[in-house]
Amino acid sequence: xxxxxxxxxxxxxxxxxxxxxxxxxxxxxxxxxxxxxxxxxxxxxxxxxxxxxxxxxxxxxxxxxxxxxxxxxxxxxxxxxxxxxxxxxxxxxxxxxxxxxxxxxxxxxxxxxxxxxxxxxxxxxxxxxxxxxxxxxxxxxxxxxxxxxxxxx
Length: 153
Prior knowledge:
This protein is mainly alpha-helical. 49% of the residues lie in helices and 3% in strands. The radius of gyration is 33 Å and the shape is elongated.
């Protein structure tokens, strides 16, 4: 049973056995040809950072949340004391502190995203080199008739 009826196997390769799973289609075959003789660069700081990014993301998100929770729990209870002027100022200060912590978290997320993009670019650039296809010109502009003449004396 042939897994790809539109593309027969090459003659130098025997037909696959009956119980072999079908091969995936190779739509991009030949697009990425690795440069022969190229050696990949050794992994460096980018891989260390890449592996720590989830931890950095989680810690940078949870710590400000914990600070907000502690600040919320330490607010005085206005129903028990009945003092409204001090509690209004405390609530206003808490809201400013909370918004500041939201800003810190969003800043942290953008910094982690920027670091992830940088790590990805470095890993991509250190990866294997690929051969680019040559661009063959169909027609060239003819040289002007006096292009090969030397300077006039």
